[in-house]
């Protein structure tokens, strides 16, 4: 604890950039590393999740993500559920380089209403490809479209906002009672962002199968400048990991998955997120560097198109390789933007670990 | 406390950039947030005050500020009280881009004497528009023009300098006895800058209705380089908030408003200032980005034109929208420069607060 | 120890940039400074070792290093043992400025197999020049080529990888049993990188004559971004120096040399490495600035050409003078890139020290 | 104290940039501030000393400095004592912009021997102008030219090197016995740089009238990169101020003046140096911005021309005004480069101080 001045105190919080991992006295062959991740009844080959952002997750890339062994989540409030054919919109957006114009155009194209039938169609397309199906809604739209989503048949229902609490109070609209909602739903719910012990604990008590830790969209969001809100990720994940332990104890053994969501720009950050206690890591910008990324080099989150207070910025990334190369290699760029899975595997092996769960205990240093 | 070396010690102080806010486990609808602010007998819709700087506050923008629900303060030592028609001066200044030439020209145009009749005229113009009237003088000029200002009829008398103390000692000029001065005056006095517990406490004891915390003009002043003086804002506000509590106790309940003044560049800083304990926030540079700003894209404070030791720099800002858009939105730029009021509202809602006074207690982290 | 959050803690670690040396109350003439360094039976005029990186150590520069009084190490997995005449490859590489192309080309040219007869020839060439002979292999290739190297007749056998442990476990390939390997070998073994007390202690117990501290290739490697692994050098060296003391105690007096390997960019870093406890310092990038450097202005390490996960970047350095001028002066560039030996001598003299071993105890400050 | 790792510890040291001053609850009129400074029998109007660097102190500017009320020190090993007419050399140097060429040329022109008769002539020229006379030698040349200097008649004899100790040991040359030397000399001696309590205490015990704190030539020297030596100034001054107190006690009241020497780039740094405990401040780069500065926009120290290990860099500064304007104003540039004396006066007044000695006790914060 530091004194801001006299009676006002604050804790110091740490970002991924502030920390790094310290190898143990053992090393392991990369052949021995097991990256498999299981949430609810579904298993994945590696603990990397595609973030529900229009610039990276289309029905096609969700399917590709699934085929490679990971989980992709489609944003059910994005262009794919507002437009029968969003391709021209993507092209129009990609053609604009001015940041102010881009924000205005996003505000305009996202004003088009969400269509329930498109939600159904997109989910079905993914299901037919034989990969796990997951779609996300913001808390504001969950009530209206939850039925549609459930009927469409999903493996995971994701409720994702900048800050999602189990106790939202409003007079204008009847807020979502998260606990009741989750109890009624037949599918496992992943919910967040949250960033503190208390807020995560309440999301766990509401029955979530997984919680998203962080406020999402690292490179592309400006919540810090616009709202003054930020909890650096290393500390956020560590705090929520403690909530997971305490909740497991109070619930008599229910293990809630912790999915880091935000500020993951390089493969090293994925390893750090797990080192802080995450079970899996949701990535946005790393996938925006793939040739198949729908954003065509541009990356943005849902904060970017808010009608009166946009809090996200379109960011441009160079394309470094195919979707497959970005995820599972081989890499030909030595900066942590390619072969995310291979890098995690090697990071664990170099540090002497073979299991993700054990890797959460690795020693860290503050740089 | 840190050791600079052996017996010399110093406390660590924090700026807005060093801190951020941590959401609670609750969230609130933005419809539930109450931003109203009351000082003395006057109420405002939101706790944002236009800084008495020529580049942002003209009689016209003061009026606009009032109509939108805030408080604008006119600098009574600026171009509007030195020149019948200052418009050509503003144009001449805006045409110069060289920083050295600009300082010289400012030193020259501000050498023109202040005219009492123009003080009267400007105040009257604002009063006739039906909005709250506030004008500022430096401590050096307060004695000479106080009568004029009082007669002109103001709602708030602002005494503003880089560092204002309740105990100024000088042999060359008879210093202002602040306590006596305030007692005699019929209108409430807002006075500052100050930045420490002790200096604020003495300004409160002198009878001020509000104190300005900070040394003003964040982006545009260079007090730190020229004089070596600086107290980072988060710590300054927190220290003065403690003085407010103690003074309320010793005075038997008199609540002195704390107005943060300086280093507020983005909407997130406004929220942080309140989170540290401010009741309202005085803004300069955010308003310099408005199309109607008299500075025409340039921003400067009164330190900038000092005849022998200028301590402020003209700074250029891109225009982002109308005065109204900057203050109350809608925003189309996601960087904290538009919709200041909406951003504060959302920041509080996301953190789970509905009242400004409660928001002063929000948890902070050091980043 | 810092709290990352609640139960997750981390120590603060320091890099060379974080620290500096504090002179004592004495100064010494540079004539009195003794820089000689002895490891196993071989003595050197100064404790600076050329890093086994193709861009700086060729048979020719190894010989030059030896003649000037230092130790040069040839990379036995580099271009000189893959190609009879690697010169055209160096030229081809130097002609490429695009970083992506360069990585791809390196991946390609280093795919050529290592040839045992070239190992023998290169070692012989160096031996015939009458200077100490040292060659390095990675742990993966040590088993295959150790015999060849030993027969070729070397003074030091260097096993060098990013992270080398005494306990490597793998199922795919039978791992090297370091302890057994070192016991059988007739020549002294220098092994690393390592960065912690525990890992260094185990390398010492395995019988090494010297340990490499750090993960190598400061300027050129990206382990931090790709894997998230980093232990800042000042702390790494200090920790391993403690292991050296404790091992000397437990072994009844065996002194293992500590060779700092990585992040040494300027002559001041060499002094800092010793001040933290190193006996000698392995340098790469400083030598890449020499006119005779085989990399022709470019510098890279063995991480740079990994087939699926390159973790190093080619870096360009301006040539500042001859190999001799870079090492022993005279310097005509005042930035710590020339006269490395003279700078170390003067640093010690200015601080009041004449022996390297004593200089390890100099007072440091955190800047 | 921080752990670098386990048993290696280090204190944190602070630079001027790390700290700032906190105003008290009082302010003072600038008319009340007394800046006079007395060392030995000589009084000055303000505590600012011109650094003995060829780029700022010529016989002419030393005289100008004295007439304005300060103390200028001539470097007796510089171009003015090596060349009858150094003007063409200055012109030749100013015509070169390449940093490498400049170092080489400096190494060449400073190879010209120092001439005793020129020392005499320069000192006489200054004495005849009726201002205080002070010249500096490095420890290495003190023995040879001390007699010449003393006979030439100086008010202060300055011995200045990067690190000067009271106990220098060398076998090559008989070192200067500082204590004996000072006892024999008729004029007061100012000696440094030093940066720690112990080294300063020994210089005080050797009989110096003043000690130079710091390693000199902030902007222009690279001791930190080349040698790894640095003690940040705020901590260095604070530590030596403690030595001054303790020495005053042990000597029964002898007050040794502490002159900060290095890292003073802006007027705010002068105030900070005094706030840390300095009695006076030696400035280089601020004077290099004067139109009359002999360096013609370039600035360098004596480390820059070392024959085998130059440790200083020529730096270019924009000219901001006349020598007089830089020192005593008026200023027309608001960045701390003009009106150094006026800025110190105002800084003290704003903080509520009227005496330099009291200002040494002002409260500081770490930013």
TrEMBL record, chains A, B, C, D:
NCBIfam families: IMP_DH_rel_2. Keywords: NAD, Oxidoreductase. InterPro entries: Aldolase_TIM, IMP_DH, IMP_DH-rel2, IMP_DH_GMPRt. GO terms for biological process: GTP biosynthetic process. GO terms for molecular function: IMP dehydrogenase activity. It comes from the Bacteria. Belongs to the IMPDH/GMPR family. SMART domains: IMPDH (SM01240). Gene3D superfamilies: Aldolase class I. The keyword Transmembrane does not apply. It comes from Luteococcus japonicus LSP_Lj1. SUPFAM superfamilies: Inosine monophosphate dehydrogenase (IMPDH). Its EC number is 1.1.1.205. Residues 13-297 form the IMP dehydrogenase/GMP reductase domain. This is Inosine-5'-monophosphate dehydrogenase.
